[in-house]
Specification:
- The complex is a heterodimer of chains A (136) and B (58).
- Chain A is mainly alpha-helical and 136 residues long.
- Chain A contains six helices and no strands.
- Helices cover 68% and strands 0% of the residues of chain A.
- Chain A is elongated, with a radius of gyration of 18 Å.
- Chain B has one domain.
- The chains are: A mainly alpha (136), B mainly alpha (58).
- Chains A and B meet through α3 and α6 of A and α1 of B.
Chain lengths: 136, 58
């Protein structure tokens, strides 16, 4: 027996999808915002401070923000990881920082901080999605 | 820029442990325990790998 959605259920499902999308986009753009939006203030505030700070330390350590180059798969993956942090990435690009100094002793540390901050924010975004779905 | 490798790795471990502990646990005591264990694991691994690299220089 098939299940047919009623006219009352359809707008509710659309609203739910819209809410999930909003949570995910906000969680990506502003680290911790997905948790703050859902009333998880403690967790949200820690992510809001820790992840951009980690990203800023990566820039201070002369790390590089990688370009989206499909010809070099490792650079491409690094670029995806860099963009995971959301707004801080775009602010850094606007301020023209993140060129990276390859001769600097801390260059690789900087790259590691920059990419890990982005990847951790992806995990935080997935956690916010789980909270929004009622799984946590 | 002169920076200590050990301190940079410890700082990295601190951030990663903090985020994972908060993601994985809800209770503050559990978060502290998980984060502390994770951080200690990172620092011990730093020492072990550091000494291994000292014995086998690249």
């Amino acid at each position: 027996m098939g299940t047919k959605s009623t006219t009352a259920e359809r707008p509710r499902a659309a609203a739910e999808l819209g809410r999930l999308t909003l949570v995910c986009v906000l969680a990506w753009l502003i680290p911790g915002a997905g948790h703050l939006l859902q009333g998880r203030r403690g967790k949200g505030l820690v992510f809001l401070v820790a992840l951009p700070l980690m990203f800023a330390i990566g820039l201070w350590l002369q790390g590089r923000l990688f370009p989206l180059e499909l010809s070099d798969p490792l650079v491409f993956l690094g670029a995806i990881a860099n963009r995971g942090i959301g707004a801080p990435y775009f602010i850094a690009r606007l301020l023209d920082v993140g060129a990276g100094t390859v001769t600097d002793a801390s260059y690789e540390y900087g790259n590691t901080f920059l990419m890990t901050a982005g990847l951790l924010n992806f995990l935080v975004m997935l956690d916010a999605f789980d909270v929004a779905q009622g799984r946590k | 820029m002169t920076t200590s490798h050990f301190l940079l790795m410890a700082l990295f471990a601190l951030f990663v442990s903090l985020v994972f502990a908060i993601l994985l646990r809800d209770d503050p005591r559990e978060q502290l325990k998980t984060g502390g264990m994770m951080f200690a694991g990172f620092v011990v691994a730093e020492f072990v790998l550091g000494w291994l690299l000292f014995a086998f220089p690249l």
